[in-house]
Amino acid sequence: MNLSREALWLVVGFVGQIAFTGRFILQWLYSEYKQRSVIPTSFWYLSIVGSTLLLVYAIYREDPVFIAGQAFGTLVYFRNLQLIAKSKNLKE
């Protein structure tokens, strides 16, 4: 049972890392499509998913450096979504 628990945590860590890396791929492809540098809203959602999963994984691993880095990033991603929503409300 201990091995399966460890395997589950590895899956959480890797899925978080894939989501976190996927946001860069998304941003790159979207910018290529628009022919200018653009950060789509989905970039921030992937950032939240990836950083939250990595934060949970870091807490499990008891890594204070990793925990601090992921916790701060999550706050920034949520703030960007708030700013996007505020900007959309002002346009309406």
UniProtKB/TrEMBL annotation:
GO terms of molecular function: lipid-A-disaccharide synthase activity
Domain Lipid A biosynthesis N-terminal, residue spans: 12-83
Entry GO CC: membrane
UniProt keywords, alphabetically: Membrane, Transmembrane, Transmembrane helix
Pfam families for the chain: LAB_N
Transmembrane annotation, as ranges: 7-30, 42-60
A GO BP annotation: lipid A biosynthetic process
Protein's recorded name: Lipid A biosynthesis N-terminal domain-containing protein
Species this chain originates from: Pseudomonas arsenicoxydans
